[in-house]
């Protein structure tokens, strides 16, 4: 290592191993065009070990770049609106449907890359069939692009599943090393029939396909499973009468709603959790649900801004962390999350979870995201190349 060492102190240092540490630092040296990490650790210790090092500009966080583990890029031309969930669905998602597609996805990917995210988990709407081939064949970011599947009618489960198998075969041929891998996203616990859930989970397990599922986003999801009533049950009945007249909730679920049933216990009973899916949102859960998810070894993506904007509740992060469940962060779409910048999400997570040790948020944004997407964070340790991307931008929180 050449003599011109610089010691960069940070309020939080995450080397990619263990937990982030407070008052950390990295010492970097070597030629300007290829700076190398000489040491990383406790700032005071490193100041004693490297008294000759120049003092670098302090950072709030030094860490590998974070991962945006859940987005809907094809909704990037939507206009953001913070509305209660049951107004947001018709007034934003449905009303803006013509804005959904490849042009938005391209703009969205540009925003994700510009934000400095290391990898991406993106759910792709089947109504925009040109988005997945483009994501898999032509983009330069790592992570997973999930083919979304919606079909609540068990009578068409086999047919839909056959189409998914054919799509997966065709799309997997487009995967490239270093690019996005293909995954599957059964849309939500109640928008895919029990029969199709089982078929998709089995298939994903056999084929090693990563899974993401929206679960327990709004409080009314608990009512739907417990009693078949409430605003979600009403809006779901309206949707189903339009697409599959006469279909009942009991037929969709393959059983009657019941006091013992939650979206999580329902998915567990179908064997879906055995495929170790990533569960998105998980805001409205019971203590038992948290235990079930921990036992299954499933992981969770939280989208704090989206949940707050749609008035869905607050993710019980401390309880999930205490149960040892891997948590990652995602922006969701711009329609509910406002931006695709994962650093905005991290800032919001710190604001919305003042009770939480910020080290957990940093670790989740990096390690949690990489674990979920099957990618790997670089390490900040002796001998590794230094990157300015390790200095996280400071956002208002
Ligand atoms: Zn989503």
From TrEMBL:
<dbReference type="InterPro" id="IPR050287">
    <property type="entry name" value="MTA/SAH_deaminase"/>
</dbReference>
<dbReference type="GO" id="GO:0016810">
    <property type="term" value="F:hydrolase activity, acting on carbon-nitrogen (but not peptide) bonds"/>
</dbReference>
<protein>
    <recommendedName>
        <fullName>Amidohydrolase-related domain-containing protein</fullName>
    </recommendedName>
</protein>
<dbReference type="InterPro" id="IPR011059">
    <property type="entry name" value="Metal-dep_hydrolase_composite"/>
</dbReference>
<feature type="domain" description="Amidohydrolase-related">
    <location>
        <begin position="67"/>
        <end position="374"/>
    </location>
</feature>
<dbReference type="InterPro" id="IPR006680">
    <property type="entry name" value="Amidohydro-rel"/>
</dbReference>
<dbReference type="Pfam" id="PF01979">
    <property type="entry name" value="Amidohydro_1"/>
</dbReference>
<dbReference type="InterPro" id="IPR032466">
    <property type="entry name" value="Metal_Hydrolase"/>
</dbReference>
<keyword id="KW-0378">Hydrolase</keyword>
